[in-house]
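Need Ubiquitin-like protease family profile domain-containing protein's 3D structure for a figure. Predict it.
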Amino acid sequence: MDYASAETSPQRFSPNVDQNLDENQDGTKGCTDLHPDKTNVEIDSQLLIPDELLRSINLNYIHSEKIVQNDGRNSDDKMDETNLFDSQFTIPVDTKIVKKFMDWISVDLLKGHAKRKGNVDHYKKGKSVIPVMHFGVETIEDKNWFYTMGFPDQSWTDSQINVCFYYFKKKSKYDPNRSYKFSTVDCNFMNIIRSVHGVYSVDDPNLTAGGQEVHLNEYINGIRMHVYVPWHTMEDIYIPVNIKKKHHWVLVVLSFSEKCIFLYESSESSGYYPAVLAEIEKLAEIILLCLQACDFYDKKGIDLQNHLRYKDKDSTDMFDVSFEENFPQKPSGSL
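Structure prediction for Ubiquitin-like protease family profile domain-containing protein:
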């Protein structure tokens, strides 16, 4: 497996506000439904999330320059010329929505809330309970869930990541004006990778050992998750990876056209690299075998004998790994 560093970052996010993604394809609203047994409960107005915020609970995505290949050649496939990490570029954020959200999660906070870490209550007694909210893959009725997303130095859980990636995927699938197509997986995907890798590498070289490879194949074939799409219809797959021992998340982008795993790391601390690489190597090893088992390349139309990124490599060669540069870094010592 080759490690490379690209000159530009291929996949870039912009928290641009979208006001129609919380509406399902059948026209129904999907974020504010209450359970039947909650409908008659009198709710403190301070606990209600502003309607404008509910309508904007999605992140838009800007796909800019395709990658710089390992030999220095640039792809010409571009959707947007904007460089998110250019100092002259201003991320389009609806500041009114952000302010309303921050105002809402700041109501009824405990005086020493910032010092309270982990799965604890940051609000005054009884004030963290909110009306049940449905976000496609999660049901939330605790204001602390939003606190974690709104305040710095908080450790996100699988729940927050799964909701964000659900809406990323929904945006990609249902936006008719988006030519760049990507999909996402949930946090359990890497749990299965770890499980399969443990059995495969220790006890049996057969990928079917342990029985969980079928779950990975379901992800690849697009039948495992909400808003499902088969991988062979996508350009890239976005994978959240939790480095649990470090309380740290990294973003992995699996690119089929480049046969490369792009790694977006918000901490350049040398102490993180061994743990991060250990996880990425598990992914690279197992995903290669799963793609072959699912006849992915035939479905994708990738000619392994003639494709620029595949023809000079053996079918058993793992995806290259590229650490993307110029990625925003978190402060030293923060979560």
